[in-house]
From TrEMBL, chain A:
GO terms for biological process: iron-sulfur cluster assembly. It holds the Pfam family SufBD_N. Residues 203-437 form the SUF system FeS cluster assembly SufBD core domain. The gene is sufB. InterPro entries: Fe-S_cluster_assembly_SufBD, SUF_FeS_clus_asmbl_SufB, SUF_FeS_clus_asmbl_SufBD_core, SUF_FeS_clus_asmbl_SufBD_sf, SufBD_N. Residues 109-200 form the SUF system FeS cluster assembly SufBD N-terminal domain. Belongs to the iron-sulfur cluster assembly SufBD family. This is Fe-S cluster assembly protein SufB. PANTHER family: FES CLUSTER ASSEMBLY PROTEIN SUF, UPF0051 PROTEIN ABCI8, CHLOROPLASTIC-RELATED. It comes from Candidatus Roizmanbacteria bacterium CG_4_10_14_0_2_um_filter_39_13.
UniProtKB/TrEMBL annotation, chain B:
Residues 34-170 form the SUF system FeS cluster assembly SufBD core domain. This is SUF system FeS cluster assembly SufBD core domain-containing protein. Signal peptide: none annotated. The lineage of its organism: Bacteria, Candidatus Roizmaniibacteriota. InterPro entries: Fe-S_cluster_assembly_SufBD, SUF_FeS_clus_asmbl_SufBD_core, SUF_FeS_clus_asmbl_SufBD_sf. GO terms for biological process: iron-sulfur cluster assembly. It comes from Candidatus Roizmanbacteria bacterium CG_4_10_14_0_2_um_filter_39_13. It holds the Pfam family SUFBD_core.
Length: 466, 187
C-alpha cells in the first residue's frame, strides 16, 4: 500500500501582518540622495554621512558573492531602503501604537518581558520603537539601546568601534548595510560587569518589499559578561524581501559574550548577514545560531581570535523545508597562541530543502598550541532534499590540533521502529528523533526560545508526514 | 578484486562499472584531479593516498567520489606527512546523486605537520542528493602527539628515533590497509 502524502499546509505560525502605518517611507531603489536623506532624517553627524556615502560607492563596485545559492532574484531597485514607523520612541508599553502592540502581543513580547528579561528592545520595521532597560543595568553603567540613539547619546563610543571590524568593503551586503543601515542594537558593558539576564531584541519586518538593514554593535569591556538574544519572526509576503544585517562584537580581555539568534523569517526573505567578533586575550565568544525560516540564508558568524588564550564557539542549527536554502556555517581565525575554537553544526533538510555547511578555519603562523574542533551533522528526511558540507581548513602552523568531522544520514529505521513499537505515531517518532538530533545546540538556548524552536520544528515535521 | 596504482596508470578519470566488484586504488605524491565514478551497484571501492612532502614540495590534489548507482561503497583515506616548506592543498568531494540510494561513502584526510613552514589546506566537501545513505568525512591536521613521543623516549629511544618511529607508524597504516585486501598488492 502506498502512503498518501498529506497535502494539508500548516499555516505559517507568525503569518499575520498588520496594516502598514508608517510616517515616512523612502522611495524605492537606492540612489545617493536616498542615502543622504536617511542620514538627514536621522540628524546624523557628518562623519556618519561620509561613512554611508563611501559605503554606497563600494556597494556599487562590489560584485555579488561567487559561491552559494543564486541571489539573482534580488531586485535592488525594488526595495524601500528606509521606513520610519512612528515619530518618537515610546517609553512605556502602553504608549505604543495599537497595531504595533497587537503584532508584539502575538509574538509575546510582554510575556517574555515578564519572564525576567533584563530589557526588551523591540524593532518594528526599521527603528526600535519600544525599549525598556532595567534600572539596575543602567546603574551598573550598561548601555543597551538602539543604534540610532547610541549614535546620538554615545557618539564617541560608536565612532571608535563602528565599522572597524566589518568595513564596508568586506562584502557587497556589508556595504549595502553600511550605506543604509537603520536600527539594530547597541550594547556596552563596562569593565567587570556581569549581566546575568539575557538582553533581548525582537525584530520584525512589516512592510512589503521593505528590506531591513539593522546594525548591531556590542562592546564587552575587560572581564565583563553579557548574553544577547535576537529573535526574528516576520509575516508572509508575496514579493521578495531582503534582510542584510551587520553585527560587530568586541570581546575584551577575559570578557565573555554569547549571542543567540533564532531566525524565523518567512520564506520570501533573503537573509544575508555578516557577523563577526574580535576576541582578545582569554576572551570567550559564543554564537548560537538557529536558522529555521527565510528563503535563502547566507550567514557565517566568525570569531577572530587575536589574544592569547581566546576561545570561540559557534553552535548552529539549520532547517530547510520546501523552497528553502540554508547556507550557513562559521569562520574561526586563529592569530594568537593557545587559542581554541569549536564549531558544532546540525542541519536538517526536508521536502526539497537544501542545507549547506560552509566553514573556514584558519591557523596563522604564530598561533601555536591552537586547537580546532569542527563537527557537522546533517539529516536528510526525504529523497527530494539535499545536504552539502563545504569546510576549509588552512593551517600555517605546526603546533596545532585541527579536527573536522561530518556525517550525513537519514533517520534511523531501527530507532523509528522502536519508538513506534512503544506507541508513538510516525510523526511523533520522527519529530522526537529530530529534536533529539538538535538537542546539543537547543539546550544552550534560553528556555523560552528553545521551547518555541522545538514547537516550530514539531509543527514543520507534522505538516508533511502522510 | 582489482588493484589500480594511479602512479603507474597515470589516469585521472576512473570508471568503476563492474557490478559487485571490489577495487583498491593507491597513489603516492601525485597532483591532479582524480575522479572516481561508480556507475554500477554493489561495488566496493577503497582509495588510499599517501603524501610525503619535503623541502619545497607542493601538492595540489582533488578527489571526487561520484556515486551514480545505488548500494555501493567508497572509502577514501589520504594521509600526509609534511616537512620543511612543503605545501599540501587537498580538496575532496563526495557526491551522491539522486540515484545513489543506500550508498555508503567515507572520506578521511589526516596530516602530520613536522615543521613551522608547512602549509596545509584541507577541504573535505560533501554533496548529498540522496536521503537513504550514510556518509562521513573527517580531517585532522596536527603534530606528533607529545604523549606518544614522551612514552617512546622513556623506553629509551632518542628524540629523532622516537619521532621517526611514530611517523613510520602513521604512514604504515596506508600500506597495511592496501595489503589487508590482498597481500600481493605491492606498492
Amino acid at each position: 500500500m502506498t502512503k498518501q502524502k498529506d497535502d494539508i499546509k500548516i499555516d505559517y505560525k507568525y503569518g499575520f501582518s498588520m496594516p502598514e502605518k508608517s510616517f515616512y517611507k523612502a522611495k524605492k531603489g537606492l540612489r545617493e540622495d536616498v542615502v543622504r536623506m536617511i542620514s538627514k532624517i536621522k540628524k546624523e553627524p557628518e562623519w556618519m554621512l561620509a561613512f554611508r556615502l563611501r559605503a554606497y560607492k563600494i556597494f556599487l563596485e562590489k560584485k555579488m558573492p561567487k559561491f552559494g545559492p543564486s541571489l539573482a532574484k534580488i531586485d535592488f531597485d525594488n526595495i524601500y531602503y528606509y521606513l520610519k514607523p512612528t515619530e518618537n520612541q515610546a517609553n512605556a508599553w502602553e504608549d505604543l501604537p495599537k497595531e504595533i502592540k497587537d503584532t508584539y502581543d502575538k509574538i509575546g513580547v510582554p510575556e517574555a518581558e515578564k519572564k525576567f528579561l533584563a530589557g526588551v528592545s523591540a524593532q518594528y520595521e526599521s527603528e526600535v520603537v519600544y525599549e525598556s532597560v532595567n534600572k539596575e543595568l543602567s546603574k551598573l553603567g550598561v548601555i543597551f539601546c538602539d543604534m540610532d540613539t547610541a549614535l546620538r547619546d554615545h557618539e564617541n563610543l560608536v565612532k571608535e568601534y563602528f565599522g572597524t571590524l566589518i568595513p564596508a568593503h568586506d562584502n557587497k551586503f556589508a556595504a549595502l548595510n553600511s550605506a543604509v543601515w537603520s536600527g539594530g542594537s547597541f550594547v556596552y558593558v563596562p569593565k567587570g560587569v556581569k549581566v546575568k539576564l539575557p538582553l533581548q531584541a525582537y525584530f520584525r519586518i512589516n512592510a512589503e518589499r521593505f528590506g531591513q538593514f539593522e546594525r548591531t554593535l556590542i562592546i564587552a569591556e575587560e572581564g565583563s559578561e553579557v548574553h544577547y538574544v535576537e529573535g526574528c519572526t516576520a509575516p508572509i509576503y508575496t514579493t521578495e524581501s531582503l534582510h542584510a544585517a551587520v553585527v560587530e562584537i568586541f570581546v575584551k580581555k577575559g570578557a565573555q559574550v554569547r549571542y543567540t539568534t533564532v531566525q524565523n523569517w518567512s520564506k520570501n526573505i533573503f537573509n544575508l548577514v555578516t557577523k563577526r567578533t574580535h576576541c582578545e586575550e582569554n576572551g570567550f565568544m559564543e554564537w548560537i545560531d538557529c536558522n529555521i525560516g527565510s528563503g535563502i540564508t547566507m550567514k557565517y558568524p566568525s570569531v577572530y581570535l587575536y589574544g592569547e588564550g581566546a576561545r570561540g564557539e559557534v553552535l548552529s542549527i539549520a532547517y530547510a523545508g520546501n523552497d528553502q536554502i540554508q547556507d550557513a556555517g562559521a569562520k574561526m581565525m586563529h592569530f594568537a597562541p593557545n587559542t581554541s575554537s569549536r564549531i558544532v553544526s546540525k542541519s536538517i533538510s526536508k521536502e526539497g530543502g537544501r542545507t549547506s555547511y560552509r566553514g573556514l578555519v584558519q591557523v596563522a603562523p604564530g598561533a601555536t598550541n591552537s586547537s580546532v574542533f569542527v563537527s557537522c551533522d546533517a539529516l536528510i528526511l526525504d529523497e527530494d532534499s539535499r545536504s552539502d558540507t563545504y569546510p576549509a581548513m588552512r593551517i600555517k602552523e605546526n603546533e596545532v590540533e585541527v579536527q573536522h568531522e561530518a556525517t550525513v544520514e537519514k533517520l534511523g529505521d531501527e530507532k523509528l521502529f522502536y519508538l513506534m513499537s512503544r506507541g508513538l505515531s510516525q510523526a511523533d517518532a520522527e519529530s522526537a528523533l529530530v529534536l533529539g538530533f538538535m538537542e546539543p545546540v537547543t539546550k544552550e538556548i534560553p528556555l523560552e526560545y528553545s521551547i518555541e524552536l522545538n514547537r516550530l520544528i514539531r509543527l514543520e515535521m507534522e505538516g508533511s508526514v502522510g | 578484486m582489482k588493484f589500480i596504482n594511479v602512479n603507474k596508470q597515470k589516469k585521472e578519470q576512473m570508471l568503476f562499472d563492474q557490478k559487485g566488484e571490489t577495487y583498491v586504488v593507491y597513489f603516492h605524491n601525485i597532483s591532479g584531479k582524480l575522479t572516481f565514478e561508480i556507475t554500477e551497484p554493489e561495488i566496493k571501492l577503497y582509495i588510499y593516498g599517501l603524501y610525503t612532502g619535503k623541502k619545497s614540495d607542493e601538492f595540489h590534489i582533488e578527489t571526487i567520489q561520484l556515486h551514480k548507482s545505488p548500494g555501493s561503497l567508497s572509502d577514501l583515506l589520504i594521509k600526509g606527512v609534511f616537512e620543511d616548506r612543503s605545501k599540501f592543498i587537498y580538496q575532496g568531494l563526495i557526491r551522491l546523486e539522486k540515484e545513489a540510494q543506500e550508498s555508503h561513502a567515507y572520506q578521511k584526510n589526516q596530516n602530520l605537520i613536522m615543521s613551522k613552514d608547512v602549509f596545509v589546506d584541507s577541504r573535505p566537501y560533501l554533496e548529498i542528493l540522496a536521503n537513504d545513505v550514510f556518509c562521513t568525512h573527517g580531517s585532522t591536521t596536527g603534530k606528533l602527539s607529545e604523549d606518544q613521543l614522551l612514552y617512546a623516549r622513556t623506553r629509551g629511544l632518542s628524540a629523532p628515533d622516537a619521532e621517526q618511529m611514530l611517523v613510520q607508524g602513521f604512514i604504515d597504516e596506508v600500506y597495511q590497509k592496501v595489503q589487508s585486501h590482498n597481500p600481493e598488492f605491492i606498492i
